[in-house]
Amino acid sequence: MAMHDISWASTKREMHMDTTNAVKLGSTGPEVFRLGLGCMGMSGMYGASDDAESVRTIHAAMERGVTLLDTGDFYGMGHNELLVGRAIAGRRERVQLSVKFGAMRAPDGGWGGVDLRPAAVKNFAAYSLKRLGVDVIDIYRPARLDPNVPIEDTIGAIADLVKAGYVRHIALSEVSAETVRRAQRIHPIVDVQLEYSLASRGPETRLFPALRELGVGATLYGVLSRGLLTGSKPSASGDFRAWLPRFSGAHRETNEASVQALHRFARERDLSPAQLAIAWVLARQPGFVPVIGARRVAQLEDALTALARPLSQEDVTALESQVAFSGERYGAEQMNMLDSERP
Questions:
Q1: Where does the NADP-dependent oxidoreductase domain start and stop, copy by copy (predicted)?
Q2: What CATH number did the domain enclosing 298 receive?
C-alpha cells in the first residue's frame, strides 16, 4: 500500500469514529454524511466532463462514506440522472438521492423558466425514477419557486408521491423563510438547498435562523463559490461562469485580492484553498451539510480532508477579517427571480 493510501486509510478510520460526521436533515429527515456530493458539474455546466471519471468519483465518494448525492433532472437535459443511475447500479442502498426538478430546458440547451404545476411535478418524477433506475427518490425538491403556482399546490403534489411510495422526503431550494413556513403547513420539509460560502453569506441574516426555528435543515451548495475561492477561472466553452458577475469585469479584479489572501491563509495552516473554504462552512454552520461539486477523485479526496482539519473560532474570525468579495452570484435578472433573495 502506498504512503498516500496509508494516510488516507488512517483519516478514513478517524472519520468513521467521529460521530459528528453524521448529520440529520432537519427534525424529520434522514441522517446523512457530513458532506454531500453535488453532481451538476459532471454534466457540462462547467465545460466538458469525463463520464468515466465522474463515475469513479461517485464510487470513491461512496467508499469514503458519503451518502448524499445531489442531482437535477435538468442537468445536461437528463444526462446527469442517467450518469448517477449508472454509478449507483447495484449500490442503491448505500446512497440517498436528492433530486431537483422544475427547470425547463430547450433543445439548444437554453432555459425556459420553471413549471411546478401538480401534473408537471408528477411527470418530472416519473422520468427521474426511470433515468435513475430506482423505485423511490429519497429527497425531492423544486429547484426554484414558480411564481405562477402556489407553493401549497406543488408541495401537495409531492406529498401525493410520498403517499404513493415514490418519494421519501420533501425539500426546497432557494426559497424565502415565508415560503418554507407555507410549505411546512402542507407537509414536513427536511431541508432547503441554498448557496453559501465566504462570498455568499446572505442566508445568515434571516434564512438560517428561520430554518433552525422550524426544525428544517440546509444543504449548502457553491461552498467554493463555483471555483472562485480556489482561483479557478472560466475558460472552457460552455462554462456558464463566464456570465456570472463575480468572474467578470471589475468584480473579478476586486475579488482576486481576497482570493490571494485566502490562499495565503490556507498555506499558513497547511491547507489547500478548497479545504479552507469547506472548513470555514463546517465551522460556521455545524448543523448543515455542505454539498461539494467534485468532478474528479482528486478533488473529492482534497475536499474530504477538510473534515479532519477543523478551524478554530479564532481562525474563522481571522479569515473573515482578511477577505471581502464583490458582485452578485447571478446576473440581475436571475437574482430577481430568487425567492431566497426577497427581503
A1: 34-321
A2: 3.20.20.100
